[in-house]
Amino acid sequence: MKKWSFVVAALYGLLLAALFIPVAAIACMKKWEVDMKWPAEALLHWEFWSIITVLAIAQFALLRIPVEMAHRRPVKQRSLWTTVITAALMMGLLVFGAGASLWECISIITKIEGWDNGLWLVIALALTSWGGWAIYFYRSTQTAAPEMQMSRMKRHLWTGSILELLVAVPTHIVVRQRDICCAGFHTFLGLTCGISVMLFAFGPAVYFLFVERWKRLHPEA
């Protein structure tokens, strides 16, 4: 059954790669003209696949606790830490996406000079959030069953991704209306962060569907 965790992680990575082209083309269209060429060309660069690989590995790491649960084994401390750090990383990614979107929107609207340094503040907040959420998730898992642990993490990831997209989508629309070179790049990052984490939160549920199907096909195992 452990192989299904690899399948889920691989499907997650492929889904992100498949969604990148239409999402990027729609987000960056000009005068209602959708250009699919440059998003498709991005798939030829190693940087793109490096990011996809990292996210797929993160998805696999989140499945450490579900794997232990599926095998009906006690959850190991190493599995707990891996899942906690990964879930907290995704929450930090949401903070970065929302912060970068707001940073770009405010800097373009107000035309404040020196706002380039604001991005470093956003990164600092995201890293701080990563650590804070890691502590919160770890403490919350000390008094809850594994099922409750995963349910709580998924709920936070799902809610956080929705809130982040509620920030990224309007700010992206605003900055795209400005006739400024590269306007909308950081808000587009916000969109990708929100969508990636939203899909990320579905991983454990998909894994259990695979496992349940496998048990039905192999009842003797």
Descriptive report:
The protein is an all-alpha fold. It has one domain. The protein is built from nine helices and no strands. The longest helix is centred in the middle third of the chain and has 34 residues.
Notable traits:
221 residues, single chain, mainly alpha, 9 helices
SSE diagram, text form:
Layout: H1 3-27, H2 37-42, H3 46-62, H4 64-70, H5 77-110, H6 118-141, H7 146-176, H8 185-200, H9 203-217
Helix pairs in contact: 1-3, 1-8, 1-9, 3-5, 5-6, 5-7, 5-8, 7-8
Q: How would you spell out the order of helices and strands?
A: HHHHHHHHH
Helix fraction, binned, reads: over 70%
**How many domains would you count in the coordinates?**
1
Distance between the termini: 10 Å
Poorly predicted residue ranges: none
> Radius of gyration from the CA trace?
19 Å
Structural class, please? mainly alpha
Report the portion of residues in β strands.
under 5%
Number of strands: 0
In quaternary terms, these chains amount to single chain
Question: What's the rounded overall pLDDT mean?
Answer: 81
Number of helices: 9
Globally, the shape reads globular
Strand count, sense and barrel status of the largest sheet are: none
Explain briefly what this protein structure is:
The chain has nine helices and no strands.
